[in-house]
Specification:
This protein has 374 residues and is mainly β. It is 4% helix and 39% strand. The chain has two helices and 22 strands. Strands 6, 7, 8, 9 and 10 form a five-stranded antiparallel β-sheet that branches. The protein has a five-stranded antiparallel β-sheet with strand order 11-12-13-14-15, with no helix packed on it. Strands 1-22-21-20 form a four-stranded antiparallel β-sheet, with no helix packed on it. The chain is globular, with a radius of gyration of 20 Å.
Length: 374
């Protein structure tokens, strides 16, 4: 670990969040509320496997509602044909990302209606964010994390990853940074944008990767969550200025558990002084929930089989302690759980009923859960 990262970790370790410790020094996940937020969970199983393209595995699974009511789902590494495990799998010919259009539908029995974006001859799924000529498919990956619609465009925020093909996929990848790609709605052929320094990475690997989840709130700002190690940070910009890195502001001070009325302070320069919460392995969802009348965050607790939620009265916090709402069964002791997030366009009853996906490394397919809140 380089000195920059050591210093950054030291800084976020003294950030704004305070998680309770048990007598054994282990983080307590018990909810402080007398009644849990989540009343019940129903497992709807693996999704997207009934397809004509022989897709048998895919990572990520993030969605964005389109103006016509459909949703664009983006996935990371996508496996075609039979395979046993993503571990030690040769990724040279594996598509680094794919997409599917999912019409509005009742998903209480699973996602039944969807259509993958296909190659020109319709024989394969199409990689929607393409590699540059100088990138090596055996070593580099482009993983879309979330996207947002602005006017007639959809912007995808994606991780650029460098890997060692000789090492376990879960131990090797190094985050080069977060890029932004733009496509016309309906066409979905993404063009990777160029950052001010001439690279494709708007935020580098030693900075939070802003855009792991996005939301436009009634105040007109586009809010972007950024992850660094397991800490979560917040940025905002005018949606029309997504492509202009100088337009972004970063939360550097905000409400805390000890000072819930503290004002939010935004700065043009990022400082690692406002960790909203921790224990997030990169991906999550954060959106305003009308039923709760609060903001709701959902994520995996580290990479464990613990799916948790948190709430806050405002997007800037203060955020609650994590409440475990579901513990998926483990297939093996090597299981890693990732990509847990809500898909807000699927919720019903004003957010009382939610739909959440997550991925277990053993099967490498999005699982869908139905949550009913109290």
């Amino acid at each position: 670990m380089n000195n920059t990262r050591r210093g950054f970790l030291k800084a976020i370790g003294t950030g704004a969040i305070s998680l309770p410790l048990s007598s054994a020094g282990v983080l307590s996940l018990a909810a402080t509320a007398p009644q849990p937020i989540c009343a019940s969970v129903r497992d709807l199983g693996l999704q997207f496997l009934d397809n004509p393209l022989r897709i048998t595995g895919q990572d990520g699974a993030t969605s964005t509602q389109l103006p016509n009511g459909d949703a664009l789902w983006l996935f990371g590494d996508t496996i075609e044909g039979p395979f046993e495990s993503i571990r030690n799998h040769n990724l040279t010919e594996v598509l680094s990302n794919t997409g599917s259009v999912v019409p509005a539908q009742d998903v209480s029995q699973g996602i039944k209606n969807f259509e993958y974006l296909k190659s020109t001859d319709s024989s394969r799924p199409r990689q929607v964010i393409e590699f540059d000529e100088n990138e090596d498919k055996a070593k580099h990956r482009l993983w879309p994390i979330h996207s947002v619609c602005v006017g007639s465009n959809v912007y995808a925020f994606y991780h650029k990853i460098t890997m060692d093909p000789e090492v376990d996929v879960f131990e090797t990848f190094e985050l080069d940074g977060m890029g932004i790609a733009r496509a016309r709605i309906g066409d979905f052929r993404f063009k990777r944008l160029t950052a001010p320094d001439g690279t494709k990475e708007f935020w580098k690997g030693d900075q939070p990767s802003f855009g792991v989840f996005t939301e436009i709130l009634p105040d007109g700002y586009l809010y972007l969550w950024g992850s660094y190690w397991t800490g979560m940070f917040l940025a905002r910009t005018d949606p029309e200025s997504i492509e202009d890195l100088t337009s972004y502001e970063y939360l550097v001070e905000g409400p805390t558990e000890l000072d819930p009325d503290a004002p939010a302070v935004w700065s043009k320069a990022f400082e690692p002084t406002a960790v909203l919460f921790e224990a997030v392995p990169n991906e999550l969802s954060v959106s305003y929930n009308p039923h709760l009348e609060r903001h709701l965050a959902i994520h995996v607790y580290h990479r464990q089989n613990k799916l948790v939620l948190r709430t806050a009265p405002a997007i800037v916090g203060p955020w609650s302690e994590p409440e475990v709402f579901y513990r998926p069964e483990m297939s093996s002791e090597d299981d890693l759980f990732t990509a847990c997030k809500e898909h807000p366009e699927l919720r019903t009853q004003q957010g009382k009923v939610l739909y959440v996906t997550y991925v277990n490394s053993s099967d490498y397919v999005p699982h869908l859960l139905e949550l009913t809140l109290n």
